[in-house]
Amino acid sequence: xxxxxxxxxxxxxxxxxxxxxxxxxEGDAIVEDQPIADVMTxxxxxxxxAMYSGVIEKLFYKQGEIAKVHxxxxxxxVDSPMKTDDLMNTDSSRAVSGADNAGENASTKDSNENAGExxxxxxxxxxxxxxxxxxxxxxxxxxAVASPAVRRVARELDVNISEVKGSGKKGxxxxxxxxxxxxxxxxxxxxxxxxxxxxxxxxxEPHYVEKIKGIKAVMAKTMADSVSTIPHFTYCEExxxxxxxxxxxxxxxxxxxxxxxxQDIKLxxxxxxxxxxxxxxxxxxxxxxQVNEDCTELTYFNDHNIGMAVDxxxxxxxxxxxxxxxxxxxxxxxxxxxxxxxxxxxxVQSSDLKGGTITISNIGAIGGxxxxxxxxxxxxxxxxxxxxxxxxxxxxxxIVEARSIMQVSWSGDHRIIDGxxxxxxxxxxxxxxxxxxxxxxxxx
Length: 444
Prior knowledge:
Radius of gyration: 27 Å
CATH architecture of the largest domain: 2-Layer Sandwich
Distance between the termini: 62 Å
CATH class of the largest domain: Alpha Beta
Helix content: 25-40%
Mean pLDDT: 81
Order of helices and strands: EEEEEEEEHEHHHHEHHHEEEEEHHEEEHH
Number of domains: 3
Shape: elongated
Structural class: alpha+beta
CATH superfamily of the largest domain: Chloramphenicol acetyltransferase-like domain
């Protein structure tokens, strides 16, 4: 029996998503729960699994195209004979891995189509010129290395670029490779592609256009809305991290932290930043508040849900650690490791992206010392951490010594936070970080 897999409603009013990658191809035999495709909504990357075992008959979208919710995503021939009503009424909560309130429906169609008839003819193609040339039936391992312009040419010619053997350095695929593959399946011999004889592409486009979509589109809209509606002001300070670094290194030698490392939980500096911030927020609750749209009411939050900006493969994500005020450094380390791994893979849960009250951006992990971060609306403040530098500073005896210095840059909502409030708040946060013993005493 042949059925159409209907792309389910994956929650929060999402009506379409981008087909990021097919994990199978037409004619492939699949098993129940096998990943079929990765799709990207404006929230996260979601993996679509198979509901049944069978054979893929047709893929309705190409990579990069926009798939519609409640429309067929692919069709397949189901292995085990099932009644139509059974297929239609099967519990569909498994349709989307990691999505909340996922749903799925299946519709049946006539099963007189003959899947995979073209694959037999392709198997009979003999290599031209021996093993020096790649054929369309030979899939190159890994993802293709190619520019967006070359990928566009591949899409126009209906060529799977991952099957094209590139003639450039490290297997880079050029336009000529794609055209040659489409015309006859043969490419430039790999043995002739040296640094001195490499054939340059015959045509290079002066520019290319890429649609802004998914997470990047959400970021563009959110950042523009924040800047246009919130009067930002920036406050910068430097923090001496020398003592905190010593404490962290000492803790890494303890049995508890070594056991954490065995579970792939890292004790970074972020748990200390968050805990110190939570302690300071108790004294300055306005920093953890949010104002309504017409600026007539101010809501104070007892929970300190501290977000952290993560540079993921699908764009900027800001998951947050819930109720930091109730958690230990060890608890925070576990939560931060989980959220970081989820965000970098693009599969962070939607619940982890909601409910943040203040944000930390660790841009210094990449580089830079001072920034002007944009507030994650509707929050009231955000801090950017600069890179750690070993700099000379005078000690209490007037002697110059090397210290580990970090620049931090705050942005605040000037409608509800004045300069004095954020300066005093930052001073308290700084005191906990520069003198970790004070932080430990204050922790409950």
